[in-house]
Amino acid sequence: MTSLGRGGGRRLWPRTFGQELAVLVVVAAAVTVLFMFVVNPLIGWPAVAPMPARSIILALVIIWIARQRGESLSAFGLARPRRIWLAIVLGFVFIATNLFALQPLKDLLREAVNAAPADLSAFEYIHGNLAAYLVSLVAAWVAAGFSEEFIFRGYLMNRIAALGRGSVLAWVFAITVQATVFGLGHLYAGPGVALTAGFGALFTGVFFLIAGRNLWALILAHGIWDSLAVTLIYLTGTPST
């Protein structure tokens, strides 16, 4: 991929998708090490606790890359919906589908591979801790709802599909890759959760296309879903299975 937009004759960097990925991998690794060995121990959180700052920082790096290349964020699914009410409806349709159709399929998949119960102990610090709960609510929207959807569906899927000139096969490959990476990002909760998270991300990738490659319905759904999850943990603790 060549440099685009406002750069003119100026040599922009990163100039290729490979260079972009290299930057993102280095940033992700640096943030992970920083939080595992410095930040989390310092504030008394488990070393393997989820790192919402990582998603936020990666999203900011991607935005910086897009600006370097003169690209509009609307190209990554952040265009204002033509019908805001429709985006809201689609968001709740996604939540309902996830709850009543996708979640049972995830349970069946976990049983089929005889996966160990989910290890959600990394979230136990939220239980009864108002400060941690409020931070987690913000993270549910900024890190999970916005940043993760922007990174995996808005950025990664579009970049990979562009390599294949937007063909059907390219989009299928893009959906598969983002789901695999998304699943691997949930290994902290055990292989079973990583597997079902990746499976769910396949559906999310398809839904992104159904929504006209607009992220706002998914951002709404993801934010609400994670907000409900952290609220339950705050009130009742992490489930034992």
Please provide a brief summary of the model.
The chain has one domain (5-236).
Total beta-strand segments: 0
Q: List the secondary-structure elements in sequence, H or E.
A: HHHHHHH
Radius of gyration: 18 Å
Secondary-structure class: mainly alpha
Largest sheet: none
Integer tally of domains: 1
Which percent band covers the strand fraction? under 5%
Any low-confidence stretches, pLDDT <50, length ≥5?
A: 1-9
C-alpha geometry: globular
Structure commentary:
There is one protein chain. This protein has 241 residues and is mainly alpha-helical. The protein has one domain. Helix content is 68%, strand content 0%. It has helices at residues 17-43, 52-68, 84-112, 130-163, 168-184, 191-210, 216-236. Helix 2 runs parallel beside helix 4 (130-163). The protein is globular, with a radius of gyration of 18 Å. Mean pLDDT is 90; it is low at 1-9.
